[in-house]
Amino acid sequence: MAVHNTRLSIATRVPAPLVGMNTISHIEGGSDVTDNLRLHGFNNLTSSLSFNIYDICYAKTEEQRRAYIDYIDELYNAERLTQILKDVTNIIGAQVLNISRQDYEPHGASVTILIAEHELEEAAPEQIAPGPGPLPETVVAHLDKSHVTVHSYPESHPDNGISTFRLDIDVSTCGQISPLKALNYLIHSFDSDIVTMDYRVRGFTRDVDGRKLFIDHDITSIQDYLAEDTKRAYQMIDVNVYQENMFHTKMLLKDFELDNYLFGTSRRDISFEEARDIEGRLRKEMLEIFYSRNMD
Fold first, then answer.
1. Is the separation of the CB atoms in 252 and 194 below 8 Å?
2. Fewest CB atoms within 10 A around its CB: which of 181, 198, 219, 266?
3. What is the CATH number of domain 6-291?
4. What is the mean pLDDT of the segment spanning 11-17?
5. Stretch 73-77: mean pLDDT, rounded?
């Protein structure tokens, strides 16, 4: 089944550029645009970015399935996830207030970081614009924001050899700095076969004339803030509700190399017929997750 990059927009309008100087920039087509808004008091808007990231593999035997779960559990333990979230905190320009983390038995981990806006330093213009953000190798620390959380969920099918690993990540900020800055870093930090993303803006702030502003930047799709290599690597579908400031993008990795999905064995160790059967199972699993429905 072919999947193409598509955008479904449920809207009666496209968000118009905001008119209005608390140095808030808006973007057009992913590029920074210098257009300042004069706000009355603090920017009270809350921006939230949610990720569901899936890694899929085939582990034939019960022993291999247990080994995969143990491997992924160690690879993405609470310590590793904490470091990733610290990097995210730096990217969006935030200061860590508190870290709570836990490794679970028999498997799984979670991390929550409370973050706050810096009170003294002014946000740099490149931090205020929603994106695109840096890749992992280009991360640098900046300033100070709300909360960042991650939870991991490894699991296996009881009898067909398919094992999956899901990470749920939420980045929520108040004020000027956008969680979209963490977008590219998070996608490149994990083996992401399937990604679902939701971005929403809630609340309102006011300009100096008292007029409510329900969003402080232009956006038509989360895809606008993805790095070019990510756009080339994934097939994507959008469902956006502009009038509610809700944006949803699903991503499915285009490249399928069977060896990348085999755990505890390799393509050369199995027959052509078995390889074709395994590939069919894996592709079916990935499409079911991508479309959120069973395909029996």
1. yes
2. 266
3. 3.60.90.10
4. 37
5. 91
Catalytic residue of the set 146, 172, 178, 189: 146
Number of H helices, E strands in the chain: 6, 13
The pairing of strands 212-213 and 205-206 is: antiparallel
Angle formed at CA 295 by CA 197 and CA 232, multiple of 5 degrees: 40
Confidence of residue 208 (pLDDT cuts 50, 70, 90): confident
DSSP secondary structure string for all residues of 198-238: EEEEES-EEBTT--EES-SS--S-GGGGS-HHHHHHEEEEE
> Bridge-partner residues for 58, per DSSP?
162, 262
Asked if 146 is an active-site residue, the reply is yes
| Confidence band of 210 (pLDDT split at 50, 70, 90) | confident
Closest CA to 221 of 9, 3, 33, 2: 9
Kindly tell me the burial class for residue 152, based on how many C-beta atoms sit within 10 Å of its own C-beta (0-12, 13-18, 19 or more): buried
pTM of the predicted model as reported, rounded to 2 decimal places: 0.76
Q: State the DSSP code for 39.
A: B
d(CA 252, CA 236): 6
